[in-house]
Amino acid sequence: MLKVDRQLKKTSKSSLEVQLGNSPKRKNGLSERGKMAREAILQAAERIFAEDGINASLRKVMAEADVNVGAINYHFGTREDLLREMLERRVSIIVGERLTLLAEAESLNNPAELRDIVAALLTPTFRPDRWNDEGWRNYFKVQAHLRSQPSQKNYPISANLFAKQHQLFVEAIGRTLPDLGKTELFWRYYCLMSAMNQSVTNPYRIRELSGGRCDTRDSAAMMKAMIPALVGMLSAPPTMPVDD
């Protein structure tokens, strides 16, 4: 069985961009001061978007970053471009770790064990050090805003960043569960993602439902409960006709 409580391997930024289907942005030529301003804008946007939502005032972002009115346009272009790059720097890390774990699971067993596939998907999101970091907490709040208030402009930005990951995980689950038709496979993957996303976007709900017995802040306990439950859901007998 794949071990998931070890130090995850680091993947280079350039290789992650290839995996995500993106090309590296051109940031060469910026002065040190320009690079610092750019990073300040990204950090400020993450904080402000987490607090106020995706449609938060860009003037508030500029004030937080202590940059002038033209800085966002100069460094990023539009609000959507700023949001995309702000998300990319976190998504590339999470997706890179997931794909590393998935590749390891498939190197151990062919096809990979279902438990290892599920663990590869969940582990990077629920690492304790991640939830103890303000920047990562802000990122998860931004994702919660995107899911609770999707728009034609903003939601596809996040969805497209995860598209390659979804394809690879669906294919891996399909190899492990060959008796499932494509339609049922996608429904079950949707349930898997919904359970994970609910834990991210509304982490307090389980505390309320359980009267405090269950707490998402205890990531080890949460993973211990969720992984076998999700494996059971995925591996249940087929209920739909097999289709291609």
Automatic annotation (TrEMBL):
PROSITE patterns: HTH_TETR_2 (PS50977). Residues 35-94 form the HTH tetR-type domain. Gene3D superfamilies: Tetracycline Repressor, domain 2. One of its GO terms (molecular function) is transcription cis-regulatory region binding. This is TetR family transcriptional regulator. Residues 57-76 bind DNA. Signal peptide: none annotated. Residues 1-34 are annotated as: Disordered. The keyword Transit peptide does not apply. It comes from Nitratireductor aestuarii. InterPro entries: Homeodomain-like_sf (IPR009057), HTH-type_TetR-like_transc_reg (IPR050109), HTH_TetR (IPR001647), PsrA_TetR_C (IPR041586), Tet_transcr_reg_TetR-rel_C_sf (IPR036271). It comes from the Bacteria.
